[in-house]
Design goal:
binds zinc ion; 4 strands; mainly alpha; globular
Length: 278
């Protein structure tokens, strides 16, 4: 991970940790001095900053470049991970339904299963979503939908593209993608080396807590439309929590870096209550 990215991640974590309390105490102060009504409801809303978000590739790689990048990154991922067809039909069936009800339904999504005893899932630009066999075996359909929907959320919000934009290699990669005409040739080979390093370092699949919260939000919102019980996200977090207590080595870095499970469960429950028709 480059130093800049690390600083950025630490900064966002610090902001994420500090801001709710700062906002709450400011609200409490004004309430006592101004004798205002109850504090605005949005202060308790863990997802307030995402509700009116609009998503596009503006300011990032355009969608064509993103798709080319996805093809290249997936090639690198296949070198690093052991892909299998086991359970793939189920993942694809559930994943495609979640994708259709996401905020980016026009993209072609490709789901992949990785043979591994680690519990992990991640996504890459251009619509590639990966999940491990260990995770698949633990999850019922609603829980699996919650994981896939969360990963689709990262793709909707272009989190990896934003991370890439902050990397030192961004200009070179963007230029190469512009010149790239196929998967063979010098440009493709050089690009492959650069992207292989990124996949190896997990650079594009490590997200800030803020981004994780956003993916949780986008994920849970898409579930009812796709025909899945959003409660599956809560029980998935609970299962991951149990795995962490039993054997944290089996928890992929992606989950151990994620925000606290208790907090995610509380936030998800909040959103489920909010989605319930009154
Ligand atoms: Zn995530």
């Amino acid at each position: 991970m480059t130093r800049i990215i690390r600083i950025f991640l630490v900064t966002s974590i610090v902001i994420a940790v500090l801001s709710p309390n700062t906002i709450r105490s400011a609200g409490a102060r004004s309430a006592t001095t101004l004798v205002a009504g109850p504090p605005p409801a949005q202060y308790d809303d863990p997802y307030s900053e995402f509700r009116n978000a609009r998503y596009s590739n503006a300011g990032l790689l355009n969608e064509r470049e993103e798709l080319k990048l996805g093809v290249q990154l997936h090639r690198e991922a296949t070198k690093k991970f052991n892909l299998t067809d086991a359970g793939l039909a189920r993942v694809d069936r559930i994943g495609q339904r979640c994708a259709r009800f996401s905020l980016r339904p026009g993209l072609t999504y490709k789901f992949h299963v990785i043979e591994s005893r680690e519990f992990n899932a991640f996504s890459l630009p251009g619509g590639h979503v990966y999940i491990t066999t260990a995770m698949l075996r633990q999850a019922n359909d609603n829980e699996l939908a919650s994981v896939l929907s969360h990963e689709i959320g990262h793709i909707v919000a272009r989190h990896s593209l934003k991370t890439l934009k902050q990397s030192r290699e961004y200009d070179d990669i963007a230029t190469s993608l512009g010149e790239l005409t196929g998967v063979a040739g010098t440009v493709a080979r050089d690009l492959g080396v650069a992207l292989g390093k990124m996949v190896g370092a997990g650079l594009l699949t490590v997200h800030s807590r803020e981004e994780e919260r956003e993916a949780d939000f986008l994920g849970v919102r898409a579930m009812p439309g796709a025909g899945f019980d959003p409660q599956g996200m809560v029980t998935m977090f609970q299962k991951l929590q149990q795995i962490e207590e039993r054997n944290s080595d089996l928890l992929g870095s992606l989950f151990s870096d994620h925000p606290d499970a208790e907090e995610r469960i509380a936030n998800t429950r909040y959103e489920i209550r909010r989605m319930r028709p009154r």
